[in-house]
């Protein structure tokens, strides 16, 4: 049960300090009693806790948590009991060393305005630049590789570049498998040279071909149904990226080696009967 719940039980404050004006706490307490209000009434009306109301009326402002909060509570209680808040706050400041001098706003604003802005690294721009560089390098590599493959195909064939030497786009329909060379065409292979025909009969495969001097005759991708023919006075070196998709005719004869799908084979063929070097 809180103290001072009944106005008639309150006694008028007797100022024994010898001063003309009552203290802040005694003025608030006297005004509350004159208004017929209990401490509970004031706490309910102002939302200031009962313990803080009792402490302020006893001129103990420690529970307020500082002078700023004490001034706020004094204004709130004064309005609730019908007193002038300004006079009580002035008395509080006089009793507690006065209000601190305000800090000029203009110098602070100026210092904040001219303070250089610190910017962090722009990671988004750096990532975009890196992606553009990688895409450009990949594009250059693809275009460069396509140009080399086309020129080497022209040298191997000894003719102008044709649609056969150009790899179709991924969306293009795969060409139908070409018919195997006839017996007469195979028999017409020169006896004084090594002749190798590479056909992508079962699927596409990357191949590489060199002559006996190590000169590159072809280095590129054969789509399913495409074929290449290479000749040299001594030998032809082959590298098959997917040997299982390739059908070979060497010196007019079909090679019946059991190449496995996906296997990489390195082969050498010379004049005469087909033989692996």
Topology:
Blueprint: H1 24-34, H2 39-46, H3 50-57, H4 67-81, H5 85-95, H6 105-114, H7 123-157, H8 183-187, E1 194-200, E2 205-210, E3 216-222, E4 227-232, E5 235-240, E6 246-250, E7 253-255, E8 265-270
Antiparallel strand pairs: 1-4, 1-6, 2-3, 2-5, 5-8, 6-7
Helix pairs in contact: 1-4, 4-5
> Which stretches of 5+ consecutive residues score pLDDT under 50?
1-19, 105-114, 150-165
State which percent range the strand residues make up.
15-25%
Mean of residue pLDDT? 75
Instruction: Indicate the structural class.
Output: alpha+beta
Shape: rod-shaped
Continuous helix count: 8
Series of secondary-structure elements, N-terminal to C-terminal: HHHHHHHHEEEEEEEE
Largest sheet, strands/sense/barrel:
4 strands, antiparallel
Distance between the ends: 112 Å
- Give me the count of strands: 8
Biggest sheet strand order reads 4-1-6-7
Specify the helix fraction band: 25-40%
Write down the Rg: 51 Å
